[in-house]
């Protein structure tokens, strides 16, 4: 808590340096997105989970520049439909020659800086929407702690290089495991992105500590002409984000590899993901299972107009769990729908 108070005081000191005063109050602008999907799936263990899916958020954003040149702003993201927290993210940011500070409920630095294989479809193979349609283990090479009340710092961009670090304490107001007292979360990452004579290049190294363990990973993308190819890998230690009395099964290794091609208003991608997991939850207990899963996604994204994109996925998966409490499963499916950005 003392670290959070210190960081908060530092932000205030930076914002008011030189007795700078904003000429006008911050005016919030409205934005966000709406995704509406229809699809079908066939899987061994039963019927498809859904025929329709949707995801909608309304974003309120605003900023102002103080007389000393420092930019201060706010972001509030409202969930369009939820059975849990109505507010998705809410934080303030302070930008200047020193970089950027963010304070509030937000994703971690590792999540922001991590690079994964290119994928344009609505399902994907890496932290996508596969589990909205079928029962399978969800591959994730950047398994960050999600939205937490935290402080984050990003360095300035030095010729394409940028680094960041986040800290969330073990407060019960966070989304940590409060039954075991929660854990501090330290997240960090670095990325480098640049263009060289028509060839774009991006690479990242990210990681996070929570509880007695860590996760970490790397990723890279290369673009040339209309093509982009890339891959990422992530490793989760068996005691990452686990309380003192939790049962763990083993480490998890995951990777993805993919290629995309852009042609005028359309993009297509083909992506493969694989995980040898040791942290799959078994029912409502704290026990976890080992196993392996493979997923393939063929995606399409076509821009119909300003803020309107048609997206589709054809996917296949094969999930083999080692626990008798989790049935092996494989299958395929197709999903299509519209994304509206406003």
Helices, strands, pairings?
Elements: H1 2-15, E1 29-43, E2 52-65, E3 71-79, E4 87-96, E5 99-106, H2 109-113, H3 130-133, E6 148-154, E7 161-168, E8 185-196, E9 199-210, E10 213-224, E11 227-236, E12 252-263, E13 266-281, E14 288-305, E15 308-321, E16 329-341
Protein architecture, described:
Residues 1-22 form the signal peptide. This is Porin. The protein has 342 residues and is mainly β. It contains three helices and 16 strands. It has a 16-stranded antiparallel β-barrel. A hairpin with a 2-residue loop joins β10 and β11 (227-236). Residues 1-10, 15-20 and 176-180 have low confidence and may be disordered.
In CATH terms, the superfamily is Porin
Query: Order of strands side by side in the largest beta sheet?
Result: 1-2-3-4-5-6-7-8-9-10-11-12-13-14-15-16
Q: So, CATH architecture?
A: Beta Barrel
Distance between the termini: 38 Å
Question: Which residue ranges are poorly predicted, with pLDDT under 50 across at least 5 consecutive positions?
Answer: 1-10, 15-20, 176-180
Sheet/helix structural class = mainly beta
List the helices and strands in order.
HEEEEEHHEEEEEEEEEEE
Structural Rg: 21 Å
CATH class group: Mainly Beta
Helix content: under 10%
Organism: Thalassospira profundimaris
Protein name: Porin
Subunit structure: Homotrimer.
Domain Porin: 7-313
